[in-house]
Predict the structure.
Amino acid sequence: MTEFDFETLSAHERYKLMIGAIVPRPIALVTTVDSQGRINAAPFSFFNCLSAEPPILALGVENHADMGFKDTSANIRETEVFTVNIVSHAMAEAMHVCAAKFAPGVDELKIAGLTARPGTAVSAPWIAESPAAFECRRHLSLSLGKSREIILGRIVRAHFAEGAVNERLHVDPAAMDAIARLGGDTCTTIRDRFDMATPKAESFAQAV
């Protein structure tokens, strides 16, 4: 095994090892609005669900090099709301456009050719092309030193594409066709799948 002492590595070196090994990471295309109602959209792969009761999503948002807040963080501080849009394979290129460093106030969704729909429970819009979108209210923010903020959002409303969820609330992964981040610029799909049922402890009684 090759070992690394994380206490001696630079932040960039730790980052490279973490994003290369902790994979695949789901992508949140986060939509917010500022105090003037202007839309911002930005993708984040430091993202996941943490709890169903209460229903909590987590975003890891890195600050600018000068330690100023990115538009997403600043807007959430102002409005207390955001929407997480899951990125399908069909949206991949449009999501990538939203990652460009546009000036504050620029509507990335328009440039990317994506459609903003008014939020139902919050002011942040959801994206019509997304297979699933979660409207959230800020639950808690954690500052990790100067460089990064963890934002926990409580889901208050969800939108799913037609046919993506059945009557038993099972979500069809093929209908989602979500993509995820690997290391560097590499992404992947979830099209190669297999099932693994959780084993019962009694099945291993003879081996104990």
In short: The first strand starts at residue 25 and ends at 26. DSSP finds five helices and twelve strands in the chain.
